[in-house]
Amino acid sequence: MKGNKKIPGGMIPPGYRTAPKPRTLESQKGDFEKIQASLLYCNRCQRPMPVRERLLLVLPDGQLFEYRCQRCGNSVGERTEKNTKPVKIIL
Ligand SMILES: [Zn+2]
């Protein structure tokens, strides 16, 4: 038995930086996949909780996301995702 080179599915090519995130859907769903919310500290729950990401605002150069606790819905943080692609704004 020789040449048993089987590449496991979802193998990450070298040089590809990945953030520590739960591996759920490996299929390519676009750039939004890289935005994976994890645990954030919730003041109401007094402990780190899984959060849900919501699109809060669409900015000219990016998007503002808000993290809400999945349990109580408290806002626990936000982040801005900058557009990497140039946006064409037709006036
Ligand atoms: Zn909470």
Short description:
This protein is mainly beta and about 90 residues long. The chain has strands at about 40, 45-60, 60-70, 75-80.
List the helices and strands and how they pair.
Blueprint: E1 39-42, E2 47-59, E3 62-69, E4 75-82
Antiparallel strand pairs: 1-2, 2-3, 3-4
The structure holds zinc ion.
The site of zinc ion has 8 residues, from loops.
What characteristics describe this protein?
mainly beta, 36% strand, flat, binds zinc ion
* Beta-strand fraction estimate: 35-45%
Count of runs of 4 or more consecutive helical residues: 0
Give the beta-strand count: 4
Strand order of the largest sheet: 1-2-3-4
Mean pLDDT reading:
76
Heteromolecules bound: zinc ion
Inertia-based shape = flat
Radius of gyration: 18 Å
Question: How much helical structure, as a percent, in the residues?
Answer: under 10%
Distance between the termini: 65 Å
Largest sheet: 4 strands, antiparallel
The low-confidence runs, each spanning 5 or more residues with pLDDT under 50, are 31-35
Topology pattern, helix = H, strand = E? EEEE
> From the helix content, strand content and strand pairing, which structural class follows?
mainly beta
